[in-house]
């Protein structure tokens, strides 16, 4: 079977947005080759793999998607190019945004992206590993999240996901109820279960993301009871929880703010990421206006994460 490979040259800050664009256009799998990921690994002398064995870019990033013969790629290319160019209006620099295509054989697609993924220690307690690696914990308390990067929107290595995972470690005490808004690969829900969150419902507007999340949840028995389903943010949701997590674009976080407020119990946490530096003030202002108290601002490269909570009656 012939597949068509569609590649987009872009920047570190735009890789997840570009991945979503390609997935929403019908891709069966996406791989990301990001120079920033390799630089991050280089800075970690305790890493568990030989960095010299990892193929990598030295600058920028390339997002590559694979489309089956049932998708007529020339028909969807103009939309892909237009949506990539429009990312600038959301404050994301996707330049150069060059889109190229080539045909690949079935066996090439099946393994092409696997060489880019290895076990990576994300936080003190959380390690993300591709599903085909037989990785075992090497330190007490280390939890292993298994993902299939062939389906995933995010595999835990992007700064926005790492900020979210760090925030979860900071606030989770155990037994919480949580909404994961814009779940993508489901990685945050899986991590939250490892950290002790009790009940989780994961939402995503995109049916492809929901299917990906369900597949990854199935790879991690600890997350067997997580419910993943399509929904537009928290529209129509009116069941209070202790924790709302959202790793999405700043422009989408802003309309989520009042919905999170409505669905959080007093003292409940609102964790947001996916915020490029120059959009931080907009997100913080929206949360403060709603009544949230800002507890911490997390930073990694050009990205920011916000830990906020809904005040109790005593505050």
From TrEMBL:
Catalytic activity: L-lysyl-[protein] + 3 S-adenosyl-L-methionine = N(6),N(6),N(6)-trimethyl-L-lysyl-[protein] + 3 S-adenosyl-L-homocysteine + 3 H(+)
Lineage: Bacteria, Bacillati, Bacillota, Bacilli, Lactobacillales
TM stretches of this protein: none
This enzyme's EC code(s): 2.1.1.-
Compartment(s) where it occurs, according to its Swiss-Prot or TrEMBL record: Cytoplasm
GO biological process, one term: methylation
Predominant place of localization: cytoplasm
Binding site for S-adenosyl-L-methionine: 161, 182, 204, 247
Keyword entries, A-Z: Cytoplasm, Methyltransferase, Ribonucleoprotein, Ribosomal protein, S-adenosyl-L-methionine, Transferase
Annotated family: Belongs to the methyltransferase superfamily. PrmA family.
Name of the protein in question: Ribosomal protein L11 methyltransferase
Originating species: Levilactobacillus namurensis DSM 19117
GO molecular function: protein-lysine N-methyltransferase activity
UniProt-listed InterPro entries: Ribosomal_L11_MeTrfase_PrmA, Ribosomal_PrmA_MeTrfase, SAM-dependent_MTases_sf
Top EC class of this enzyme: transferase
SUPFAM superfamilies: S-adenosyl-L-methionine-dependent methyltransferases (SSF53335)
Function of the molecule: Methylates ribosomal protein L11.
Highest taxon, organism lineage: Bacteria
Pfam families associated with the record: PrmA
A cellular component annotation (GO) from this entry: cytoplasm
């Amino acid at each position: 079977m012939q597949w068509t490979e569609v590649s987009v040259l872009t920047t570190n800050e735009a890789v997840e947005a570009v991945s979503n664009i390609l997935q929403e256009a019908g891709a069966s799998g996406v791989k990301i080759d990001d120079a920033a990921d390799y630089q991050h690994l280089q800075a970690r002398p305790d890493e568990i793999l030989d960095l010299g064995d990892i193929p990598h870019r030295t600058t920028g990033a390339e997002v590559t998607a694979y489309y089956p013969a049932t998708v007529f790629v020339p028909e969807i290319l103009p939309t892909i190019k237009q949506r990539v160019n429009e990312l600038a209006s959301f404050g994301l620099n996707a330049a150069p945004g060059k889109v190229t295509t080539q045909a690949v054989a079935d066996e090439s697609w099946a393994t092409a992206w696997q060489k880019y993924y290895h076990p990576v220690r994300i936080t003190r307690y959380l390690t993300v590993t591709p599903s085909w690696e037989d990785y075992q914990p090497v330190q007490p308390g280390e939890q292993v999240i298994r993902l299939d990067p062939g389906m995933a929107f995010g595999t835990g290595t992007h700064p926005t996901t790492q900020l979210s995972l760090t925030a979860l470690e900071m606030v989770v005490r155990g037994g919480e109820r949580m909404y994961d808004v814009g779940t993508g690969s489901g990685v945050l829900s899986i991590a939250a279960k490892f950290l002790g969150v009790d009940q989780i419902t994961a939402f995503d507007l995109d049916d492809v993301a929901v299917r990906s999340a369900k597949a990854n949840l199935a790879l991690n028995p600890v997350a067997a009871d997580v419910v993943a389903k399509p929904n537009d943010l928290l529209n129509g949701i009116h069941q209070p929880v202790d924790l709302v997590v959202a790793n999405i674009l700043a422009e989408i976080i802003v309309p989520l703010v009042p919905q999170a407020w409505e669905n959080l119990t007093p003292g409940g946490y609102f964790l947001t990421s996916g915020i490029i530096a120059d959009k931080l003030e907009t997100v913080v202002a929206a949360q403060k206006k709603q009544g949230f108290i800002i507890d911490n601002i997390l930073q990694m490269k050009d990205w920011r994460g916000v830990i906020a909570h809904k005040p109790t009656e005593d505050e």
